[in-house]
């Protein structure tokens, strides 16, 4: 159960399996500097790899080459990190470039200022952060369920430290990191495809936060579920992403218990689809020259669009042209 801003209020989970040996192994690794670093490094490697992949996907339609270059330059420093704090520094610097590029792919009317300040991250003072928070809340639920199923201790993390307050479940936050790209992807797709727009949110002056309109929230939840239900090939099988999260959590458990010598959160690699759809292809092919010119689409652009719409490969349509279509 989530609040309007994506905060998880409560969760209903089946009884956690009693695996004292697994939890003991988890704690031993978490208090061993080398063991803790190994798991944390794998988590950060996966998060950065997926972040760069999302940026490369966006770069097909937006001028973010400078930000991508900076992000990759910062990511190359990951190998120099020798402790968990060093990993966090690299992760933070990559994230800064990532959100700069992400913001350039969004309309200025949405007033997205990034995720690097507490006011935007927690209070959702713009529609994009409101949607991101909700998608992250959905992801958190999936990670909680996976941890519960495997029998790991949710409060003992590796990248995120222990906390003195009960509500912080460090392993849940750890497990979210390699899969945050799913939420980022869902949100950017929703705004690009017109599933969400500024009019789908309303602003409350009492706490300065945006809230979803009910119908928009339902559309967005359906989009999140569809993405988590999409399939990817892993270990010779087609799996849904929620199943992948479960599988990766089980693999982590095997590694901590000494049943496996390796742990890798970077696989499987997702295939990010293009934004073209059959409906859009039909609209392009049915558009007359006079109608295109009346909506501000030049003859050369229409020729390019028709050529791409007739092909079987994916293609991108920039936002200005998409709006006119």
Short description:
The chain is mainly alpha-helical. It has helices at residues 20-30, 33-58, 65-75, 84-104, 118-123, 127-150, 170-176, 180-192, 214-229, 241-256, 278-285, 289-294, 299-310, 319-324, and strands spanning 201-204, 209-212, 231-234, 237-240.
Keywords:
14 helices; Four Helix Bundle (Hemerythrin (Met), subunit A); mainly alpha
Q: Would you write up a description of this structure?
A:
With 325 residues, the protein is mainly α. The protein has two domains: 252 residues, CRISPR-associated endonuclease Cas1, C-terminal domain (Four Helix Bundle (Hemerythrin (Met), subunit A), Up-down Bundle), CATH 1.20.120; 52 residues, no CATH class. The strands form two sheets. Strands 1-2 form a two-stranded antiparallel sheet. It has a two-stranded antiparallel ribbon with strand order 3-4. It is globular, with a radius of gyration of 21 Å.
CATH architecture of the largest domain: Up-down Bundle
Please report the first level of CATH classification, the CATH class of the largest domain.
Answer: Mainly Alpha
Let me know the average pLDDT.
Answer: 88
Give a quick account of the main beta sheet: strands, pairing sense, barrel closure: 2 strands, antiparallel
SS class: mainly alpha
Shape: globular
The gyration radius over C-alpha positions equals: 21 Å
Note the total helix count.
14
Instruction: Output the CATH topology of the largest domain.
Output: Four Helix Bundle (Hemerythrin (Met), subunit A)
């Amino acid at each position: 159960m989530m609040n309007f801003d994506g905060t998880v209020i409560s969760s209903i989970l089946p009884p956690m399996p009693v695996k004292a040996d697994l939890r003991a192994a988890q704690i031993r690794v978490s208090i061993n500097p080398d063991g803790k670093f190994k798991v944390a490094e794998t988590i950060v490697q996966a998060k950065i790899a997926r972040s760069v992949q999302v940026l490369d996907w966006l770069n097909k339609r937006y001028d973010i080459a400078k930000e991508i270059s900076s992000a990759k330059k910062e990511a190359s420093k990951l190998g120099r990190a020798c402790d968990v704090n060093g990993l966090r520094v690299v992760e933070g610097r990559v994230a800064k470039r990532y959100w700069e590029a992400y913001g350039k792919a969004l309309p200025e009317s949405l007033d997205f200022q990034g995720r690097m300040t507490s006011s935007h991250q927690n209070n959702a003072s713009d529609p994009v952060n409101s949607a991101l928070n909700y998608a992250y809340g959905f992801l958190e639920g999936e990670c909680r369920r996976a941890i519960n199923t495997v029998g790991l201790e949710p409060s003992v993390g590796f990248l995120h430290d222990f906390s003195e307050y009960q509500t912080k479940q460090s392993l849940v936050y750890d497990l979210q990191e390699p899969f945050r790209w799913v939420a980022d992807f869902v949100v950017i797709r929703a705004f690009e495809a017109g599933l969400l727009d500024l009019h789908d949110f309303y602003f409350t002056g009492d706490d300065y936060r945006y809230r979803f309109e009910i119908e928009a929230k339902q559309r967005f939840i359906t989009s999140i579920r569809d993405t988590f239900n999409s399939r990817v090939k892993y270990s010779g099988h087609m799996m849904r992403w929620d199943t992948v999260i479960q599988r990766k959590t089980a693999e982590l458990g095997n590694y901590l218990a000494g049943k496996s010598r390796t742990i890798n959160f970077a696989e499987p690699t997702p295939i990010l689809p293009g934004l073209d759809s059959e409906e859009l292809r039909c609209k392009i092919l049915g558009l007359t020259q006079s109608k295109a010119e009346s909506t501000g689409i030049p003859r050369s652009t229409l020729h390019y669009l028709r050529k791409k719409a007739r092909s079987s490969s994916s293609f991108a349509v920039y936002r200005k042209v998409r709006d006119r279509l």
